[in-house]
Input
Amino acid sequence: MPSTTTHALPTNPRLSGFQSAAAPPGFAATVGDGAGSATAAPAPRAAPRREAPARVLDRYDVFPHIEDRLTMTVREWLVYHWTMHRHFTKYLGLKVLKTPFDWIVLGDILQDTRPEVVIAIGCYEGGDTLWMAHLLDRLDYPCQIIGIDLSPTPLSIEHPRISWVIGDATDSQTVARVAEICAGRRGMVIEDSDHKYTVTRELLTLYERFVAPDCYFIVEDTIVDYIQMPPFPGPMKAVDEFVAARRGQFVVDRSREKYIVTHNPKGYLLRVGENGAAR
Ligand SMILES: C[S@@+](CC[C@H](N)C(=O)[O-])C[C@H]1O[C@@H](n2cnc3c(N)ncnc32)[C@H](O)[C@@H]1O
Output
């Protein structure tokens, strides 16, 4: 009789309901020499060819392999990503300081809400700003981006949709310039600048007026409060206070954290629509 081995998938009790204990169809395999079996004898095997080992490009010092990190916690992943993404996450060569998940969610929000003006506070190299401009080009409707930063670095990026405002976002002149460019259009705001509690609190109150009903005020990097990263205190406290004081006007849309891994927990704030309902 041939020896028979069934390769069943290992089960994980925490995934009950998602993972079947039985091997999926086609996964069970029979191993044997065929003696005594009713199946046809296997064709004679050709002599094995010696293959050159596959070439692997690796930077294990920076990018560890998933098979060695299967028990990594989300916290450990976030800390790893926090240090790594500053150097390696880019759009057209310009750094983007976001998780790939939050980056995708930002695209979803632009497509779902179609604002007429996006106010991006804190643009760094402008990678995310240029990416939004290109996405809006593809969406092909009129929407301007106002990029605000203390530093003139992003000025080298030119795109017809982008207006740069170089200065402190908390400065009244900056806010006045933004109001001028917005000119009453349906706006959304992305705050990704200083992240200190006091500054975030100030920016929320200065820029909420530019957020239209059914549009978002995104406060980035609220995760710092969960992973004990500076600044202390971070933006989460400002968000909590703001939402508590604006009951009925803004809701925290946690459905935008659908990937679980986010730098912006409780940071997707949706302005309640004119009929009083959140979308
Ligand atoms: C985290 S980076 C922005 C990252 C960018 N949004 C991205 O996703 O790639 C923060 C930026 O905010 C700017 N910044 C900090 N405080 C600011 C303030 N008070 N007003 C305007 N910009 C500020 C800094 O110069 C820096 O470029």
Notes: Residues 95-98, 122-124, 127-128, 148-151, 168-170, 192-194 surround S-adenosylmethionine (CB under 6 Å). Confidence is low (pLDDT under 50) at residues 1-10, 14-39.
